[in-house]
Write a structure and sequence with these properties.
Shape: globular
Number of strands: 25
Helix content: 25-40%
Number of helices: 16
Strand content: 25-35%
Distance between the termini: 59 Å
Radius of gyration: 23 Å
Structural class: alpha/beta
């Protein structure tokens, strides 16, 4: 009875395969998969994993690899076999990599040959592709998969490790049911359709690219293209040739596309849907993109790994007059704003966003104290500081830990950053609080320039748009800002560097 009523992550692809078996599901490099072929490959990969490595349902399997079709198939195979998939940032090395593999208790590491040498001793490793005995090679000889355990909605399917911008990463325990709920929320809120031609250029180990876009698009039966990275020239080529009409990217990538020398001269009219998220999009940057591509529909996606990760969406028709908002909660998410005591605050008052949702994780892997702290008073505490308006729209002010205490007055770094982005010479900026004897924390802007500007000029520019106590006391110029793989700026690293 349980299996009859359950919906699993791999099951959404199986349903698409039965509905449109010969439709193209996925393109990567020179390989193309129909929905039928993709679903059959998942079954074969599940059989290979379970018969060749002594794995049992519930075992953790880490994926430490680049984007590819094999990466997706391996994840879906883990889901079908009842294994718990652990996506790992392929840029991690040394202690950072060893921590996640050890903390998750991974029994096997799926990797690429060029990354295999980084895997710590003591871990069994298997190549996903580009090797004679890789998982991709074994898919050429289909084999039936007879599961010993039929995964159910409440079974764990993935450990999504948090970005670790403020502390050691925590593994959010995601069930099949939580992710399937999130897929439905993504399809409805983001207007995902079978006729769309999305390009997936961000890392598949990151929850946004995998769970907000690739899996939901596979669920509706769209034609998907996976790239190794968000290469501007390749993306422009796909759009011009009609092979891509929708793209998700964090603001840092959209900024790079907008600043690319080919952006103004390429024919990008075929791009219909632009999704952004993972960090705050500066309003001036969004305005520049809209001016260049007035027919492009923009969607702001907001959330965090623990909720699958989509929590709110600001749709194209909602941007007018609300371009700094992250929208309203999606279908399966309930959200509100509370004070430090967990009490509801009036609309228009800043506080912490808390959630209730079937999309939420089941807690953090092997971290009962952190789980209890995050899930309290019947709500999940996000750590995001936001304001809700009377119409139910949320505007993120900052991360709770990033608010600056300047002279006893709290300053939101987001507001200062938006003011600086209106200066034509500012390519990127991050505002942090640095220790100061007089101010407790001095508002400090770390700036990447694309033109000429002085510290005094930028401070004066900010003071014209902000109360003086909010304007930077200091401006530091750098060549680039440190980011994690999802595009989030590592403000902790900036605070440590310039303190």
């Amino acid at each position: 009875m349980t299996g009859v009523r359950s919906s699993t992550v791999d099951g959404v692809v199986t349903r698409s395969a039965r509905r449109t078996p010969e439709r193209t599901a996925l393109r990567y490099a020179d390989r193309t998969w129909t929905y039928r072929a993709l679903d059959e490959a998942v079954g074969t990969a599940a059989a290979v994993l379970m018969t060749g490595h002594g794995l049992r349902p519930g075992d953790r399997v880490a994926s430490y690899a680049h984007n590819s079709d094999a990466y997706l198939i391996a994840f879906l195979a883990c889901a079908r076999a009842g294994l718990v998939h652990v996506p790992v940032n392929q840029n991690l090395t040394g202690e950072d990599l060893a921590y996640i593999l050890s903390q998750s208790g991974s029994s096997l590491v799926l990797t690429d040959p060029d990354l295999a040498g980084r895997v710590p001793d003591g871990y069994a490793a298997r190549a996903l592709r580009d090797a004679p005995d890789s998982l991709l090679t074994e898919l050429a000889a289909p084999r039936a998969f007879a599961p010993t355990h039929e995964p159910a909605a409440d079974d764990l399917v993935q450990l999504l490790y948090t970005s670790g911008t403020t502390a050691l990463p925590k593994g959010a325990m995601m069930t099949h049911g939580a992710l399937v709920h999130e897929y439905v929320s993504a399809v409805t809120a983001l207007d995902l359709r079978a006729g769309d031609r999305p390009v997936h250029a961000l890392p598949l180990y990151h929850s946004a690219q995998m769970h907000v876009f690739l899996l939901p698009y596979l669920a509706v039966g769209a034609e998907n293209t996976v790239l190794d990275s968000p290469d501007a020239g390749r993306i422009f080529d796909l759009v011009e040739s009609g092979q891509a009409d929708s793209l998700f990217a964090p603001p840092t990538v959209w900024i790079g596309l907008a600043n690319h020398p080919d952006f103004a001269r390429r024919d990008l009219g075929g791009l219909r849907k632009a999704y952004y998220g993972a960090s705050i999009m500066p309003v001036p940057v969004l305005e520049r993109l809209r001016d260049r591509l007035p027919g492009l529909a923009f969607y702001n996606c907001f959330g965090q790994s623990e909720i699958g990760p989509l929590a709110t969406v600001l749709g194209p028709d909602e941007h007018q007059g609300r371009m700094d908002s992250c929208g309203r909660p999606v279908l399966f998410v309930e959200a509100k704003v509370v004070d430090e005591n967990g009490k509801d605050v009036p609309d228009g008052t800043a506080g912490e966003v808390v959630y209730r949702s079937p999309q939420l994780c089941s807690g953090y892997w092997d971290k009962p104290e952190e789980s209890a702290e995050a899930f309290r008073d019947g709500w999940f505490h996000s750590g995001d500081l936001a304001v809700r308006d009377p119409e139910g729209y949320f505007t993120v002010v900052d991360r709770v830990k990033d608010v600056i205490n300047s002279g006893g007055v709290l300053v939101a770094s987001r507001q200062v950053e938006d003011a600086l982005y209106t200066h034509p010479a500012v390519a990127e900026t991050a505002v942090v609080g640095l220790p100061d004897e007089r101010w407790i924390e001095a508002v400090t802007a770390v700036v990447v320039l694309r033109g000429e500007a002085t510290e005094a000029e930028l401070i004066a520019h900010a003071r014209e748009r902000l109360a003086h106590f909010k304007a930077p006391k200091r401006v530091v110029f750098v060549d680039g800002l440190p980011r994690n793989a999802s595009g989030k700026i590592l403000k902790r690293e900036l605070r440590d560097r310039f303190a």
